[in-house]
Design brief:
Largest sheet: 4 strands, mixed
CATH class: Alpha Beta
Order of helices and strands: HEEEHEH
Mean pLDDT: 93
Strand order of the largest sheet: 1-2-4-3
CATH topology: Ribosomal Protein S5, domain 2
Number of strands: 4
Distance between the termini: 23 Å
Low-confidence stretches: none
Length: 109
């Protein structure tokens, strides 16, 4: 899975992307045709969620959900943000919310 590592790309997606929220995950998505067609994903858990153990668990849940939903989508750059409800959820619940967010964003039907 290709991830977004550049702060420049991260800022670009954050500023220009479409935002969609569900209780367990927030998604910011932007079309990126200049990347050669393959999509990229970033997993974010802010410090306000808790200590390192909490943030790492949230990111693991987001990664598992992304894998279950078949991310990254080609031609899309996505930022997946953990919410306070992410920590207490199972990976299947997070995947269900992520799928719902993709439908809201118009990336799935």
């Amino acid at each position: 899975m290709r991830t977004i590592k550049s702060a420049k790309v991260f800022e670009k997606v954050f500023k220009r992307g479409r935002r969609v929220s569900t209780p367990r995950v927030r998604v910011t998505v932007m079309e990126c045709s200049d990347e050669g067609g393959s999509g990229r994903v970033a997993f974010i858990a802010a410090k306000r969620l808790g200590n390192a153990v909490t943030r790492n668990r949230c990111k693991r849940l987001l990664r598992a959900a992304a894998h279950e939903c078949g991310l990254p989508l080609s031609g899309q750059a996505m930022l997946l943000f953990a919410t306070p409800k992410t920590f207490d959820a199972s990976s299947h619940e997070v995947a269900r919310d992520l799928e719902r967010a993709l439908v809201k964003a118009g990336l799935r039907s």
